[in-house]
Every structure is written in C-alpha cells, then in structure tokens.
Amino acid sequence: MSTSEMRRVTAINNGTVIDHIPAGSALSVLRMLGISDDRASPISLVMNVPSSKHGRKDIIKVEDRELTQDELDRLALIAPKASVAIIRSYAVAEKREVTIGKELLNVARCTYSNCITNNSREPLDHRLNVVKTDPLELRCRYCGRSQNMKELINNLI
Amino acid sequence: MDGDLITMDDMTNEEIVSLLDDAERLLPVAHGEEFLPLLQGKLLANMFFEPSTRTRMSFETAMKRLGGDVVNLGDVKSSSAVKGETLYDTMRMVDGYCDIAALRHPRQGAAQYAADACYIPIMNGGDGAGHHPTQTLLDLFTIRQAHGRLDGLTVALVGDLRYGRTVHSLSHALARFDCELIFISPNQLSMPTEIVSDLTESGSKITETDDLYSAIPDVDVIYMTRIQKERFPDDDEYAKVAGIYKLTAADLTAAKGEMIVMHPLPRVDEISPDVDATRHARYFEQAFNGVVARMALMCKLLGVDIPGGAA
C-alpha cells in the first residue's frame, strides 16, 4: 500500500487489513466473512482506490479481530489475489496468504436450482470441487455443474 | 470402480470393456435359456422417484434372472417423499433394507448424494438432466455388438442434447474411446457448454450443427433422442422445437450399410415406424441389452464373479 493510499484511512492498532480486493467487492467480502455492521469495533472500508497492480481495488481494515486462515481461505471466492496483514500494536505482525484447496466445504450452496443440495432440508455438506484456480472454476460435487461465480456470492452460507 | 456407479467417470476404459465382456457372457441368462443364480439372496432396491419403464423393469429383470429379488419404492405419490422426507433419510432406510440400489430422481446430483448417504452400492438410473451411466453401458454394448469395436467410430447424437442425460453420459464415454462426435440439435437444446469444453479440452473431435440430414452418410451411429416435454419450463418453449427431427427410412438410403440407429426410448415421432424394418434399426435390441448390462454391473458392484471370465 502506498503512503497516499494509507492516508485514506487511519492506521489500526490491532486487527486485520485485507488489501488488493477487486474494486467493488469489499461489501461482499464483509458479508462473506460474517462481519456485520453491529460489531463494537470499527471497520474501515476503502473502495475504488487506484492500484498499480489491478487498476482499481478495495481495502478493508477490521479492528480488534484477527481473521483465521479458514476465514481467509473463503476469500478466494471473491478476492483470490488479496493480501492480508495481521496488525498488532500498529505493526504488521504476520502476513497471510489467501489459498484455496481442492474443495470448498459448506462455504456456498450450489448455484444450480435443480441440484439436490438446494432442498434446504437435505442434511449433507455443501461441497464444491475446485477444478481450476486461475480463473477460479468450481463444480458442485453432487450435480457436477460449473458454478456461476456471480450468483455464488449470493449463495454464501 | 469405487463401489458405486454415478457417472461414467467412475469406470476406467478397461473396466468398461471388461464389464461388456461380462455382459456378453450373460446373454443366454438374460434370454432365459440358462438359469444362473449368481445373486441369490441379494435384494435390489428400485428407487424410482420419476417415471420409468425400461430402466426400472430391466433392473428388476436383471436381478430376478440372476436369482435375486427386488423391492420397489412404488408410486412416489404414496411414498414418504410426499410427506417431506428427505432423500437422505429415505436412502438411509434403504441402506438397511437392501444390498444394492438403483436410483432415479428428478434432481440432479441425487445419485451422488445417495451414495454419500449409504454404504450399499448405488447405481445412478438418471438424475435430473445429469447422468445416466447404466444407459451408457447398454448403449456401448449395443454399439460394440454392431460394429465389433468401440474405438474410432463416428457417432451423431441428435435431438435434446441439453436436457437429455443419456447423451451426456454417452458422449463422455465415446470420447474416451476416440470416437468422433457430431452434436446435432436446435440451438436452444445444444450440449451444455461444460460438457463441450471438457470434451474439447481432452482432445476429442467435436462438431456442433443443427443439420441431421447432411451428417447421415458419414456416421456409424445415429443416436436419436426425444425432445423431453417434461424438462421445459413452459409449453411455448417446447412447441418451438417439438418434432424438429423426424428420421424416416427414406432418409437412410444415403447411410453406410452397417450404420445403426439407436434411441433410448420412449420415442415420440423422431423415428418413423418405417425405420423399424430397416437393417439400421437397433433400438429394441438396445432396450433388451439393458438387462445384460445391468446384470453385469450388479455382479461387479456386489463382488460376484461371472463364470467364464478372465482369472
């Protein structure tokens, strides 16, 4: 992050900074991570700032919460190239990678309306297989359909 | 094969060929000329949540010809499904009752879901617009019976390629045997893009067209399918494409002598009855072959060897 970008939001004491989120996706990231607006600690959101790597990007700073690796891995759905820093006492204590394994387990429901898993009473896990990572392609373990990535964001669990 | 048959990807080419060989040896049993009670004491659950004539009956025939018995779900309207029972609960119950199950369900992915819920082998008898691998086995058996081989044939798949699950499973299997595939359909019923891209990426030669009649002289197999009214969201959409392909005996004068016409049945009007009397018609033999293919499959999944096979 450049100095000029840093000035847009205040530095945080403790928490997590997620940088290089695709422009316009920050709200989806918050929703995906289950970070709601009723929490006591501040959340800073910067959208559509210039980025040398990606043209435009979003940035999120979540105070007083260190996101776990599991939570960060869910980010791969929306922001596979995000960089994540854990902040302690105003300093970067740790850098974490967004990674995606071979399967997303109970992250999102299949986007195909006639898939067996879209009967909400069926109890088995929602399982999406990772077919490719760049660009990300997911297929439902059960119906085998390629997932519509835009719709998938609305199917987060 | 890992205990279930959900898609053709569950079988290697060698396993497919071996199973077709097994099926060949079971022909006298399927014809009732020999009694071979290989599956005596075994119980098949026929779980058909959607209407079926051939698939359900041929599973039942196959099990009974091999000395086993069958329990049927019966009319889905009088089953627990209408009371809101989940597929998971129904299949857990069946898991306790029977040794093996055949499942047909309107929802895609139901067979894999049932396989994850059960310990007994699950055979996918059709899941929504998904897969129908036991149909593929009998289709491959029929093709091999006619041509003596599976490799390197040119096969036209015609009609409803979008919703027709038989052609989804069959095209994957044929591509693995280096067949050239011609997908013939109106645009709105074309093969799903993920299937075309999978096949293309794996190096298969695919042609997509809406012209059946120009393809006839070049192909070894014409695989006709019914435009399935029940898969359309409304009658208007169905009316736009219903009856678009009608194969007649006169159309086949340009065909190769050994070319065969197949159809998973039931047909509506896509194959004229005058084709039945030509040497090309193979759809009734194809329906019969469902019995031997399913006999061989059940033996395989239940770990029962068929006499006369390779040691």
Fold and architecture overview:
Chain A is α+β, with helices and mostly antiparallel strands and 157 residues long. Chain A is built from four helices and eight strands. Chain A has helices spanning 3-7, 26-32, 69-74, 149-154, and strands at 15-22, 43-51, 55-63, 83-88, 91-97, 103-105, 127-133, 136-140. The mean pLDDT of chain A is 87. Chain B is of the alpha/beta class and 311 residues long. In chain B, helix 1 packs across helix 10 (283-301) and helix 4 (87-97) packs across helix 5 (110-117). The radius of gyration of chain B is 19 Å and the shape is globular. The A-B interface holds A 110, 112, 114-119, 121-124, 139-146 and B 7, 84, 86-88, 105-110, 112-113, 116-117, 127-131, 193-194.
Structural class of chain A: alpha+beta
Uncertain residue ranges of chain B: none
Query: From the 3D coordinates, which CATH architecture of the largest domain in chain B would you assign?
Result: 3-Layer(aba) Sandwich
**CATH class category name of the largest domain in chain B:** Alpha Beta
Largest beta sheet of chain A: what is the strand line-up? 2-3-1-4-5
Helix content of chain A: 10-25%
What would CATH call the class of the largest domain in chain A?
Alpha Beta
Number of individual domains of chain B: 2
CATH H-level homologous superfamily name of the largest domain in chain A: Aspartate carbamoyltransferase regulatory subunit, N-terminal domain
Separate helix tally of chain A: 4
Structure summarized in a few sentences:
The complex is a heterodimer of chains A (157) and B (311). With 157 residues, chain A is of the alpha+beta class.
Defining key terms:
heterodimer, A: about 160 residues, alpha+beta, Alpha-Beta Plaits, SH3 type barrels, 2 domains, 4 helices, about 15% helix, B: about 300 residues, alpha/beta, Rossmann fold, 10 helices, about 15% strand
